[in-house]
Specification:
8 helices, Rossmann fold, 255 residues
């Protein structure tokens, strides 16, 4: 992440391998050794123990709505990067957001016909993605070249000590989580890339080329009010999406 020296912390079993973990005293990034087991870990793109996938996507709808509202971009285009089965895109379109899907590794099951076309968008989301990446700084730089605002989620680790070896987010059962962040890690990334950054201190983080509105964090803390905040500003796309797909007459891309 920063080029600093990462010190060996502990080893533990991940899938069928003994994996070493390292902690950087400079930037606070906590990571595995070079992840040689990923082909085995991604035999299925969505791991079997992700029981929170639907709950998390419902939460992320509110997070996106509050972010769009805070930045004054409710009418903008949202691209869900590494969008999985398309759950979030379909939910966002259901409430009226012009959301698009993209994912190199997972089938689009629920948002077919609404794939991103590669043009710039107003907001790019990357929920539960960065803990999977071998080169997260380069990925963030790439995302910020495609959108002025990037909203991502990843659970932060404690500031003063490495995570406990039995912390559930290490994901030993599936082996897909390989890098973990502290608040100072994210701040260092923003500094390197010359962008603005804010965080809720737990799991939700935003990076932006433009100053982040001061209301962004209070709005996230009150995200349950998102339907009230956006009432009247958005109209569901359920019917219009159906009509557009029916009119197109073109076969949808295969899942």
């Amino acid at each position: 992440m920063c080029g600093g020296r990462s010190l060996f912390t502990y080893s533990q079993r991940v899938l069928d391998d003994d994996v070493r973990y390292f902690d950087c005293a400079a930037c606070g990034y906590f990571q595995t050794e070079k992840p040689y087991w990923l082909e085995k870990a991604y035999a299925s793109a969505i791991n079997d123990v992700d029981t929170g996938i639907l709950w998390r996507n419902q939460l992320n709808v509110r997070r996106v709505l509050m972010t769009l509202s805070a930045f004054g971009k409710l009418s903008g285009v949202v691209v869900d990067h590494a969008g999985g089965y398309g759950i979030l895109v379909r939910l966002l379109r259901d409430v009226g957001v012009d959301a698009r899907w993209r994912d190199k590794y997972c089938a689009n099951l629920l948002a077919r016909g609404f794939e991103a076309d590669g043009t710039r968008c107003d907001l790019l989301t990357a929920f539960e993605v960065f803990e999977h990446l071998e080169y997260p700084l380069a990925e963030l730089e790439s995302l910020l070249a495609q959108a002025p605002v990037v909203l991502l989620s990843t659970d932060l680790i404690r500031q003063t000590a490495p995570p406990a070896p039995d912390w559930w987010y290490l994901g030993q059962e599936h082996g897909q989580h390989i890098g973990f962040f502290r608040e100072r890690t994210l701040a260092g990334m923003a500094k390197k890339l010359g962008c603005h950054h804010a965080s809720d201190g737990r799991s939700l983080h935003v990076f932006s080329h433009e100053p982040i509105p001061r209301r962004w964090l209070p709005m996230q803390r009150l995200n349950r009010l998102a339907p009230l905040v956006t009432a009247g500003a958005l109209r569901s796309r359920v019917q219009s999406d159906f009509e557009a797909l029916r009119r197109s007459g073109a076969p949808l891309p295969p899942p």
